[in-house]
Amino acid sequence: MHSLLLTITKYSYFEIFIALGLGIVGLPVPDETLMAYSGFLVYQGKLNYLYTILVAFSGTSCGITIGYVLGKTLGNPLIKKYAAKMHVNPDEIQDAENFYNRYGRFALFIGYFIPGVRHLTAIIAGASLMPYRTFALFAYTGGFLWTITLVSLGY
């Protein structure tokens, strides 16, 4: 983690974008620490607040969109293909999809603030075939609020 923070200091905006995008997809990137450290660099005058927010939000948005696409293209077919081997019947799959379609948008919005959850919400949204517009509205709004909050806390 120490080397990641040194790299961010050196490459700044590009590194923030890449690290957050990969972190949201699920790679082991300390997202909260990265955002707070970015806010601290803003405080020190090494980064611009508005640019940092925009770059961090862009990286986060790319990462969560990749998760959604992976869930939509791979998740649902894999679940249906291997459901019987996992002892899951089609009614249970439909119940899970219905539950997520009813409450998933709130999980997308709030899930950013819960480590581990933010990595899964997009994949589950895609796998449950949530419409992209619904996904985008709640995922990107939550991501923007999460970005502003953590960068501001670091500042």
Q: Report on the biggest sheet.
A: none
**Anisotropy-based shape:** elongated
Question: What structural class do the secondary elements suggest?
Answer: mainly alpha
Low-confidence stretches: none
Helical segment count: 7
Question: What gap, in angstroms, lies between the N and C termini?
Answer: 20 Å
Mean pLDDT: 85
Order of helices and strands: HHHHHHH
How much strand? under 5%
Number of strands: 0
Helical content (DSSP H or I, runs of 4+): over 70%
- The rounded Rg comes to 17 Å
List key phrases describing it.
elongated; mainly alpha; 7 helices; 155 residues
What would you note in describing this structure?
The protein is mainly alpha-helical. The protein is 81% helix and 0% strand. The chain contains 7 helices and no strands. The chain is elongated and about 55 Å long. The mean pLDDT is 85.
The gist of it:
The chain is an all-alpha fold.
Secondary structure: elements and pairs:
Elements: H1 2-11, H2 13-25, H3 31-43, H4 49-82, H5 90-110, H6 117-127, H7 132-154
